[in-house]
Amino acid sequence: MESTENTPSSHPDEQVARLVQSGDAEAFGVLMKRYEPKIFRYSRKFLKSSEDCQDMVQETFVKAYRNIQSFDTTRKFSSWLYRIAHNECINFLKKKRVESVPLFDLDVLMPHAAVVEQKNELEQQEIKELMDRSLDSIDLKYREPLVLYYLEGFDYKEIADILRIPIATVGVRLKRAKVALKQQYPKNNKLST
Amino acid sequence: MSIQENVLDKIKSGQLQMHSKWYFVVQGALIIGFAFLLFVVSAFLVSFIFFILHTSDISLLPRFGKNGIIVLFFIFPWVLVLVALIITGITGYLLKRFEFVYHKPLLYLPVALIFLVTFVGFMVQISSFHDNFRPYSLNHRLPFFASFYQMFRSPERGALSVGKIVSRNATGYSVRFRGGIAGSVVVDKTTRFPEGTSFVPGQMIIVLGLRQGNTVKADEIRLAPTRLPVPFEERIIK
Question: Which of A7, A27, A176, B112 is most buried, with most CB under 10 Å away?
Fold first, then answer.
């Protein structure tokens, strides 16, 4: 029992990251094991080919290891890792030019009233179903918060940290993303916006 | 080979190495230091703009109404304003990575920076910094600063003249311009006298019009206010 508690695989991410920072390369394997499928799933929402996704995932972990000393272990590791993954996704999309990556967005410029989505089990399920069917047709800037909120389970502040946008903008984008999803499937009137 | 194995192999073989903690400490310090330096440069430029407005006759131009404001627009040191804005923009770009910045709407950053730069610039101006530093940098030929102060002298030269009437003559007035230079103001039918033409020797006048050498072709003449800006060439450093 004691030995299980002392293995990195039983530690929280931040503690494992601290081990990596102190030179335990094997501990990085634990973090990879935990996050490789998640980052791959995340990349699938933005990149078309499986090969690109694998490259992107590998590049994310390479950068994460190289920059692990910049990670503040008092903060959440997943947000830090997804920030790297987000940057890699953007780099891939820019390189492949398959999708336009906006350089500037008015949503980030102007202040917004805070919009907080109420988590509702039924609605969440519906959105996830809609996302499965029509996520590709949603703008990148709306797709990312949708994926991070509904699929990856991040809260507003964490999404704001990952995308480096104001917290209120996360709410605005989620709200607009839901409207866009709804427009893709006008027959589905169950969504509350 | 899986991604995990691939990455771990690279780590074990030394192909992939992490940056040291110091790398990030130095990087962060450089970014903050550079942003601070840029902020200081912007504040210096803005303070110099205030200094020009305070010490040159440019501030008299609005007294000429629309025509004066048009001239003011064309001779205003916009280059300094533009450079200060660009530097402030770079400062903002460097600060964008920090949580206290990106968690707020982006608009707040330039507004806050412009306000801060203007406020600090104004405080520097009223602290007589330029009164002391300008002659010091010129006397000691300080790199950059000496040529900077040389380059931006009274910008109204050639557009606005201030002088004391010595006498009337056939073409207008003989005057003694600032700095004790003797010259003349040429008056013709197009010259405007909104305050009348009854100027007498000994009175200080301000003349809007093209100055070539020591002669001004007057477009408009007005009485000078009792308190004139003291040009920086004539300012006494206490």
Answer: A27
- Preferred mutation among B96, B106, B109 to probe A, highest tally of A CBs within 10 A: B106
pTM: 0.79
Segment B79-97, tens digit of pLDDT: 999 999 999 999 999 998 8
**Chain B residues with CB inside 8 Å of A166's CB?**
102-106
Q: DSSP secondary-structure letter at A148?
A: I
Nearest Cα of chain A lies from the Cα of B82 at a distance, in angstroms, of 21
Chain A positions in Cβ-Cβ contact with residue B6 (cut-off 8 Å): 58
With beta carbons less than 8 A apart as the criterion, state whether B216 and B184 touch: yes
Determine the Cα–Cα distance for residues A10 and A1; give it in Å rounded to an integer: 11
CB contact under 8 A, B18 and A112: no
Q: Can you tell me the distance from the alpha carbon of B34 to that of B65, in angstroms, rounded to the nearest whole number?
A: 43
ipTM (interface pTM): 0.78
Q: Chain A contact for B19, CB < 8 A? A: yes
- Contacts A167 to B, Cβ<8 Å: 103
Provide the shortest C-alpha distance from residue A113 to chain B (in Å): 11
Q: Which amino acid is at A109?
A: L
Determine the average pLDDT of the residues in B31-55. 93
Question: Is the CB of residue B1 less than 8 Å away from at least one CB of chain A?
Answer: no
C-alpha–C-alpha distance, residues B92 and B109, integer Å: 7
A and B: number of Cβ contacts within 8 A: 76
d(CA A129, CA A146): 12
Q: Which residues of B touch A168 (CB under 8 A)?
A: 105
* DSSP annotation of B236: P
Residue A148 contacts residue A157 (beta carbons within 8 Å): no
Please tell me which residue of chain A has the smallest CA distance to B98. A164
Handedness of CA B196, B202, B204, B205 (dihedral sign): positive
* Residue A102 Cα distances to A90, A141, A142, B130, angstroms: 10, 8, 12, 44
A27 contacts A20 by C-beta, under 8 angstroms: yes
Distance separating alpha carbons of residues B203 and B193, to the nearest angstrom: 15
Q: Which residues of A touch B99 (CB under 8 A)?
A: 161
**For residues B220-237, average pLDDT:** 76
Question: Would you give the end-to-end CA distance of chain B in angstroms?
Answer: 77
pLDDT score of A116? 64
